[in-house]
Structures are given as C-alpha cells and as structure tokens.
Amino acid sequence: ALVGTTGAGKSTLVNLLTRFYELTSGEILVDGKPLRSYGMKALREMVGLVTQESFLFNGTIRENLLMGKPDASDEEVLRAAEAANARGFIDRLPNGLGSVVGERGVKLSVGEKQRVSIARAILKDPPILILDEATASVDTTTERLIQEALEHLMAHRTCFVIAHRLSTILRANQILVLERGRIIERGTHAELLSLGGKYARLCEQSFLETAEGDFESAAELIS
Questions:
Q1: Phi, psi of 211 (to 5 degrees)
Q2: What are 126-178's pLDDT values in tens digits?
Q3: pTM (2 decimals)?
Q4: What would you report as the CA-atom Rg of the chain, rounded to the nearest whole angstrom?
C-alpha cells in the first residue's frame, strides 16, 4: 500500500512503474530484472491498472471488457463480470453485454463503470496490479459491491495500491510511506505505528480509536 498526503509522490511512483514516466536516476526491478529491460508490449501485458476514473470507450460492454483479453469467450467475459459484481446490472440492460455504454461510459453510473473496469482487469488476469482505490461518492450497497470485487481482483497477485481505505492498509504486508517524492518509512501497520514516525503521526491526526480497538477513518490521512 502506498500512503502519503497530496503531492507526496504516490501517483508519480505508479507512473514510473508503468513507464508512463521514465526514470532519470535509480532503478526499478521486476523479478530481479530492470524495468527498462522489458519491452513496452510485455510490460503492458504484465501489468493491470485500475484507476479512480474508469476509462470506457463508446462501444458495448463486451467490447470494453475484451480490452482486457481480446480473445476471451462470452463465458469468460461473464465469469469476470460475475466476479466483479457486475453481472447483475449487465443482465438487466436491454442488450446485456451488447449494450452500448456511451462516450466515457456516460450511460452507466459511477459504480457500474468501476465494476466494468474491475471486470476488465479480472479478465486480463495480470501478475501485477496497480490500483488507485476509488473514492467516488456511491451508496453503501454499491460501495460494498465494489469492495468485494476489488478483494477478488487483488487475490493471488502482486498489488500496488494507492490506499484510501483503512481496511486495505491493514491487510497490506508492506506499507510505503511517501513524502516529497521519497519513501521515508516502510513496514506493516503495527511496525510503522511502533516507529512513532510520519505514519504514526498521520494515524494520530486522522484515525479515532474506538472502544473495540478498531479505527475509524478520516479523510485527511490519504488524499
């Protein structure tokens, strides 16, 4: 999980991992090999990217999902939609997978677009996932469906998450705390709290401990 306040460098790190930005110094290794040694096509096949703003083009739901795996069968597409909690609303549309979503998915709700984007990533099944957790305003039921879909997507793969939810931070086996473009702390939630450093201060500022020992999130932790 990548943690830091606005401008800390979370998005820049993601752009470096995907080579949208090129390194000017240092090195990023993937399976022990420099990132630059991978061709762009190979890198794009290895990495799945799910951002807050779901990119959908003016085609059918099927066509948008097939961007993840162009040769996928309808059965595979529907399984991915099921795993992403998107099958229900797709089946309710007049033309199902053949329904046109409009430019940038304008005919779908925010939550529906997010689930289509997640289904596309599930269909692609990349070994590396980069996820900017969605923070869009959706109702409680939709948020639960999206979170369940994300949990399915994140299972059994390497994930880099720009984390906006405490549940994600707590599950992460490594948290990177960024400040002014540098990694200043790393560890688990418990390890970083025990350091009493930047992460601990963010928690003091932004989490209220409940009587049960859990935490309630405030928006200032990660933005």
A1: -65, -25
A2: 999 998 876 555 777 877 888 888 888 888 899 998 877 777 788 889 999 99
A3: 0.80
A4: 19
Span 72-112, pLDDT tens digits: 999 999 999 999 999 999 999 999 999 999 998 899 998 89
Give dist(CA 67, CA 118) in Å, integer: 12
Specify the long-range contacts of residues 170-174, CB closer than 8 Å, at least 24 apart. Answer: 172/1, 174/1
Q: Which tokens is 141 given?
A: 């039921």
Other CB atoms closer than 10 Å to residue 90's CB: what's the count?
A: 25
CA separation for the pair 136, 143 (Å, rounded): 9
Interatomic CA distance for residues 96 and 99, integer angstroms: 6
Give CA–CA dist 6/126, Å, rounded: 28
Supply φ then ψ for residue 209, to 5 degrees: -75, 130
- Nearest CA to 139 out of 160, 166, 111 is that of 111
Q: What is the DSSP string of 143-189?
A: HHHHHHHHHHHHTTSEEEEE--SHHHHHH-S-EEEEETTEEEEEE-H
